[in-house]
Amino acid sequence: MASLLLVIFIVSLVTHLVNSIPAAALNELLWILYNKLPTPTSKAAREQVKLKHEVLRLKKEMNGVSAQDDFARWAKLRRSHDKVFADLQKSDSGIRSARTSFDTTVASIRWVLTNGLRFFLQFWYAKQPLFWIPQGWVPGYVEWILAFPRAPTGSISVQVWGVACASVISLVSEALVALYSLATGKVATKAERKKEEPVLAAGVEKKEL
What we know:
Keywords: Coiled coil, Endoplasmic reticulum, Membrane, Signal, Transmembrane, Transmembrane helix, Transport. Belongs to the WRB/GET1 family. The structure is a single chain. The relative contact order is 0.10. This protein has a two-stranded antiparallel ribbon with strand order 1-2. The chain contains six helices and two strands; from the N terminus they run ααααβαβα. The chain has two domains: 22-125; 128-189. By secondary structure, it is mainly alpha-helical. It has helices at residues 2-20, 23-36, 42-63, 71-124, 140-146, 158-208; strands spanning 131-132, 155-156.
């Protein structure tokens, strides 16, 4: 059962890492990568970027022209801006629909590869003891809890092992984040002290004068 123990630990670790990334940020990154490939929306996405740049260029050029001093040029730029902006809105509606479907698909795949896989393992190996604990080490009711829900009494069930893995991974993750925060805080403090030293020295010199 060593392989199953490792599989459940890896699934718990991957689930924690994936859930640590905000869904919106992950979807945005995957959407950019998706449109880099020859996909149905890649051409439309490139056209949308070009239209956005063109709208910004025309708007900037319009702002640099006075409607009173050079009305003909300003009006021409305004018509071009309105036309490109209308094309951009049409492109946005199509891209937005494709993006909604893409986000839904990514969310479904994300759930299947993390929580879905975890639930499947817990269901499929519900009666499988991962390992046994020595008899008499813990009271009978504790043995029943450790074997919950359907593993043989006296063994560790998949569910309990999964909860233990998730708890340990969460604690280690929080500890690493705390250590990183402390380390960066100390570095910042040292840098601030180095900046403050010349100021203090200058203050002392002024007092001596």
